[in-house]
Amino acid sequence: MKPVASFLFVCWLLCLLASCESHFLTDESYRSRVAADLQQKQAMLRQDALFAPLADKSLTTYEREALSFLYAYMPLADITDYSPQFHLTNIRASRRAAEEMPWGKTIPEILFRHFVLPVRVNNEPLDSARVVFYRELKDRVRTLSLYDAILEVNHWCHEKAVYTPSDARTSSPLATVRTAYGRCGEESTLLVAALRSVGIPARQVYTPRWAHTDDNHAWVEAWADGQWYFLGACEPEPVLNLGWFNAPASRGMLMHTKVFGRYEGTEEVMSVTPNYTEINVISNYAPTAQATVTVTDLQGRPVAGAQVDFKLYNYAEFYTVASKQTAADGTCSLTAGCGDMLVWASKDGSFGFSKLSFGKQTDLRIVLDKTPASAYTLDLDVVPPVESAELPPVTAEQRAENSRRLAQEDSIRNAYVSTFPSPDAARRLATQYELDADIVSKLLVASRGNHRVIADFLSRLRSKASKKTGIHLLQQLSAKDLRDVTLDVLLENMLSHVRTTNAVHYRKYVLNPRVSHEQLTPYKTFFSQAISKEDEQAYLADPFRLAAWVSTNIRVEKDCNLGAPAISPAGVWQARVADAHSRDIFFVSMARSLGIPARIDEVTGKVQLITDEGAVDVELDSVSDSTPVSGAVSDISSASHSTKKPLPKNGKLIAGYRPIKALDNPKYYSHFTISKITPQGCLQLLNYDEGDADMGSGTTWNSLLKEGTALDAGNYLLVTGTRLASGAVLSRVSSFTIEPQKTTKTDLVMRKSKDDVQVIGTFNSESLFAPTMGRGGASPRQSLLQACGRGYFVVGILGVNQEPTNHALRDIAAYKAELEQWGRPLVLLFPDEAQAGKFIKESFPDMPSTIIYGIDTDNIAAQIADAMKLKNKSSLPIFIIADTFNRVVFVSQGYTIGLGEQLMKTVNGL
Question: What is the pLDDT of residue 125?
Fold first, then answer.
């Protein structure tokens, strides 16, 4: 071919390729659906400037379609709080992974757009994890099969983080890596982010609540070669579809996952929102059954559009795990595990409820025969599904290799953790900066991988006053805040205005940057520049003018931010639209930036101004600035009575309690809860302080109801429950009404099982074990009879560093005094010397002094499993109560919450 002709051919080819530029959305009908949803999102937000990045002419067709897909379904927080360049960088990174990873071309488009492209996993802050993780993982997995790559990525995650319980706020993936800690929601977010970074479809799966025990759990499903597999995040197993939660998952009643965007897969759809599709994947884990609920009025006519809440008993409340709307014929249906739920239907202030047993009932009729003021008491026996787990086969060689790798990964992570400040190093730093060594040591050690930020902040505290304020600021933060707070947030709060004479109010409600569970941002600096001096003086003179401005200028759209954490205060200011919770945080943040003490009440969720006389409710949905203004400016307490609405008309609740054996002081969330019945006929839980749930503190009958507590006038539901060792619950629900200026008296009743403690099996008390002499060492073997003497004893087989065992040990620690008073030994055994060497007693302080640690040299675990006919012999921990006449009266295996209480219930029944 002649040179000129060749040149013309190349030009023609380039033009042809340009005209055939690849699409992100190849399905034209779906592309049209995205365009329609994007237009609907723009109409809802009414802020065209937020969508200006989509008009960037430099974008390729692929990039514009991908960015349009993201913007069409993004929660508002992701639009306001992250730049278009951030989202574009992640689009390009996901495409690069698809091009460079060997499986990239095999991933179906529907899976790529919903389970690879999106950065958001659940409600975590977004970060650059996709780019960072890809650099670390690409060479590690590129030669593996897709199946093996999933396992390998999980091993990498285990190098980075280990389970620890924490508060409800979800850290970002990079923050989890930096701190080397994560609760299950954070570990699963980390693993999903890591898998997606190398182009593997992944999603977080969670059970909103377990049916057989209190708590919930989250894990991961990843797609390989045509099917979804599950795995425990940061808990590598030799094969997929295997985790410590196989058994509890088989007793689950509902498993969800939120799919970004409008998803048209094969799974059962729970709900479709403007941002995500929620699907039900319970059938992947447990036997299921479908039931249809029909809602009628008092005349028996079907009620369309009724809200039907499916509720599981968990943490002493009936918690909504699924919500449906009835169709024109008054029906809706749900597929769930084969156990009991409470179904609560409501519309226009009327409601009704009834127990539904999936697998036994296919239909349930609920009559809307109650109003919030109705009086009723009902006993409910709630039965969870039975265990039915089937474990995939694992060879001895696979198990040994996996154990070797886990030990290696532990050493890698521990080497990193060893770079965190020790208590002694922290004390030396405190001395250098002339700060209280005890306080600084606790703060720096708690900050873990964020210690450099905390140390940098401390180094900037020069004056005596700044040191005092800086320490007070750090003490207001949670342990998780210390692990991921940024320097700019700390520094700006040092400039907080002091406009109240109450030091406690200043520290908690002005200096403190945290309002709820939002990501901390430097909002005080932002508002100091955004609010004019004239407005500032007006708001200080009358804080209700600030409330009126927020009520007038911030439009609430309940669906605008679904699936995301709260929108930042700066983001709300920019968008002038928010969900109600982000709006409330915005108001409190503005108030605090002006030095006005404010909060969101943890119990009721109300927005409040804090005065010397007490908390003043702020109704942002109806507040007006028409109230006459008077009073001083510098201290809102001096102006509070002239500008605030009348204090709510409260009454008082006193509940009598007749102690039952082994329970003299019931605990909130463990034994009882209180919910307000809204005017619409729904339940709103009162969130009292749970304290350290693992160590026995928190709100109790004695502290809350024995002498009485103030409640807003209205109608309420008291729920109590006795959890049996089988997982079943003996519950009672009873209504009561609080009238203004009156005292309501009711009874808190804990139902008891009619059956006394029974012998449920046999176990040989002559079985041998080797007591440990120290970390990893063991003394000569002896029998349980020799170690414990005649009488009852507890034997537990531990799964070291596994979440179920950690929960069990903390539950036992919570009952230290009671178990020591009982006085009988608790023999806690490790499966082998290697596991004994990994156990760190210091991680579980306040354990009963009656514990004997040992090594299970003679396979007591297998003996118990055989004698008690346990289906999954390898599932740990296992606990029994037995006596030296070889009688077993209690057994527990695997994941359960409240083990200490269950042990004591049995002990007190002997």
Answer: 96
